């Protein structure tokens, strides 16, 4: 996450320096269209913010869970943009995300570890407000804020931990419109914060009833996403 932020800050700095010199504006009236469409491709990483119960089993075990590393996923989506005024746009960006979270379960005293690979296929339906700065030659940075109802359509398995199908995310994004001769290229970095407890606590599906100790160790878990997208509009 820190590496992604560092790369993004460097990119914005380069764009700012480049925009200081006056240049011929490409697509000067493109932002005044009432409605326009596009598509996006990108990558993302998934995380969980986990709160523990500290519960002790009958055998004296206390389990904890964490996501020790991140695996990049893939995402593709569509864009619908409604012009409101020179600095505000309403955007609808349905996106399909393929990825996974590797959760490590660790027993406090014996240091016994179990690993769970939670694969997810998310359909996200974000609605956001895009606030753009004043255009600088062929660059225009912006901020965005929105909400994204989400459904996980991946096949559920009898894992030691299991996640709920539905969630809603609060999204905060930063990006930059880059005006090319025939279209806009828009890199965007977005941070998504799940608003509900994503862990399924009722586990009647477990083959071994003793495995419920892993779920009981987790009080709540909130989903987190960092999404890097390239829009073509």
Put simply, the count of helices is: 2
Average of pLDDT: 88
Please state the structural category: mainly beta
Summarize the biggest pleated sheet: 11 strands, antiparallel
Low-confidence stretches: none
Q: Give the % helix.
A: under 10%
Shape: elongated
The number of E-state strands comes to 11
How much beta, percentage-wise? over 45%
Order of helices and strands: HEEEEEEEEEEHE
Distance between the termini: 27 Å
Q: Work out the radius of gyration.
A: 21 Å
Could you list some keywords that capture this structure?
54% strand; mainly beta; eleven-stranded antiparallel β-sheet; 233 residues
Write a structural description.
The mean pLDDT is 88. This protein is mainly beta and 233 residues long. A hairpin with a 6-residue loop joins strand 7 and strand 8. Helix content is 9%, strand content 54%. It starts with a helix and ends with a strand. The relative contact order is 0.22. Strands 1, 2, 3, 4, 5, 6, 7, 8, 9, 10 and 11 form an 11-stranded antiparallel β-sheet that branches. The chain has helices spanning 2-18, 212-216; strands at residues 35-52, 63-66, 73-85, 88-92, 95-107, 113-124, 127-132, 139-152, 166-179, 184-194, 218-232.
């Amino acid at each position: 996450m820190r590496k992604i932020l560092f790369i993004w800050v460097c990119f914005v700095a380069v764009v700012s320096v480049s925009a200081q010199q006056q240049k011929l504006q490409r697509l000067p009236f493109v932002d005044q269209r009432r409605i326009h469409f596009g598509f996006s491709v990108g990558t993302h990483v998934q995380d969980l913010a986990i709160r523990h119960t500290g519960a002790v089993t009958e055998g004296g075990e206390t389990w904890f869970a964490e996501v020790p590393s991140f695996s990049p996923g893939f995402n593709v989506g569509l864009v619908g943009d409604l012009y409101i005024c020179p600095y505000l746009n309403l955007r609808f960006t349905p996106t399909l995300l393929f990825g996974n979270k590797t959760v490590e379960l660790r027993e406090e005293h014996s240091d016994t570890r179990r690993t769970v690979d939670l694969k997810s296929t998310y359909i996200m339906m974000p609605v956001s407000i895009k606030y753009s700065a004043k255009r600088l030659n062929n660059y225009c940075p912006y901020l965005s804020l929105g909400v994204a109802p989400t459904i996980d359509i991946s096949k559920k398995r009898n894992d030691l931990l299991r996640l709920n199908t539905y969630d809603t995310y609060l999204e905060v994004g930063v990006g930059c419109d880059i005006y090319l001769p025939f279209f806009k290229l828009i890199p965007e970095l977005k941070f998504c914060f799940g608003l509900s407890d994503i862990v399924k606590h009722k586990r009647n599906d477990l083959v071994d009833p003793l495995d419920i100790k892993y779920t009981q160790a987790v009080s709540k878990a909130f989903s987190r996403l960092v999404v890097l997208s390239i829009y073509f509009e």
